[in-house]
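Appendix B. Worked example

We walk through a single record from start to finish. Start with the input: the chain for Probable GTP-binding protein EngB, Parvularcula bermudensis, length 213.
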Amino acid sequence: MTEESQNTALSEDARKLFRGDCQFMLGVTTMAALPPPDLPEFAFAGRSNVGKSSLINRLTGRKALARTSNTPGRTRELNFFDLGGRLRLVDLPGYGYAKASRSAVESWTGLTRDFLRGRPNLRRVHILVDSRHGLKPVDEETMSLLDESAVPYQLVLTKIDKIKPTEAARRIKAVGEAIGRRPAAHPDIIATSSETGDGIAALREGMTSIAAT
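Next comes the structure step. The output line below is what the pipeline stores for this chain.
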């Protein structure tokens, strides 16, 4: 299904929301600097260089809303984006490899964990996994944290256009089996591509629906 046909199937509410105003709000490095918890928030987590910023840009139809980089670990703050005053997207620092000091990595890793555990208006965390590599131990650690904190999350495969359809099917099946008994995991896995637009409509529709409840 092309992105155009996916968008045709979008609800009118989702279409208006993601075609409307979207702005970068702020980047924070401490819990005290977080914006008020007055809107539904949807966070994007994943290993460094998994494609979080590229996915956010594609979701919002902007080319450079979220800053992208080929350098792993470039995002070092919690970056908040406001969609029409109705919901927020949160681009989290990547976990795993980063060209930074150990103390800096520990600082933003601790901030991310505190945010994921204690943000009352966090409606869902999208855990991004590179479809070429599958789940890694650090992804499992994040899922365990969210399970323990009873924070709903959904697995999103990125760069699905980089692998063959048969391999993509195997990857989706393997990830589905890995989350089968995890209490906070959403059972549906979304395979996406920031280049072709695959899966973008499904993400938009899901967030619009959740934010409305």
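Two observations about the output. The chain is about 40% helix and 20% strand. The longest helix spans residues 102-118.
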